[in-house]
Design brief:
Structural class: alpha/beta
Radius of gyration: 14 Å
Strand content: 25-35%
Order of helices and strands: EHEHEHEEHEEEEE
Largest sheet: 5 strands, mixed
Number of helices: 4
Distance between the termini: 24 Å
Length: 169
């Protein structure tokens, strides 16, 4: 099973489409927050088209989201998706994923939550920097940012058969 992971789209419609294309066919997309608004600390992205992105997401039936620090009730309203929770635990057959934007808790707190709920993966966003760390109990993934990367390349990721593939552009 292929599970697409993306984060910090910040209204970047064309960047979102590029991520979808790079990931190829997936069972579902997990979006780690900061969906539409570019945020007060970020410059306006060159691909900033939040209305188009909201309309596109509204038509998707295979996307699961969590709330980021730049998301609001209006994002939920215009996308028609539940962006009201800060974290989710999801089961995909033999893979259990803990997803959160990552701005509310420390990495150590996330690891404890994941261990207590027997998660195989912690996926988190917020930093706009790709991460892939394997600990003795859990694998920590940050797909980076599709729209406002802080590590030099736009990116997303796919979990496939307990492995992680990063896509950059």
């Amino acid at each position: 099973m292929r599970i697409g992971i993306l984060s910090d789209t910040h209204g970047g419609y064309r960047d979102f489409l590029t991520a979808i294309e790079k990931m190829g066919p997936v069972y579902c997309y997990l979006h780690l927050g900061d969906v539409l608004y570019h945020g007060p600390r970020n410059d306006l992205p060159g691909t900033y088209e939040p209305k188009k992105l909201a309309s596109y997401i509204q038509k998707m039936d295979n996307i699961i989201l969590v709330r980021g620090n730049c998301d609001s009730e209006v994002d939920e309203m215009v996308t028609g998706k539940d962006i009201s929770v800060n974290e989710r635990f999801l089961d995909f057959g033999d893979i259990r994923i803990y997803m959160t934007h990552g701005h509310r808790e420390t990495e150590e707190e996330r690891i404890i939550k994941a261990e207590n709920r027997f998660a195989d993966f912690i996926i988190t966003g917020h930093t706009h920097i790709k991460k892939d760390i394997i600990t003795p109990t859990v694998r920590i993934i940050n797909p980076g940012s599709t729209t406002i990367p802080k590590d030099g390349s736009h990116s997303c990721a796919v979990i496939e058969d307990n492995d992680v593939i990063f896509y950059e552009w």
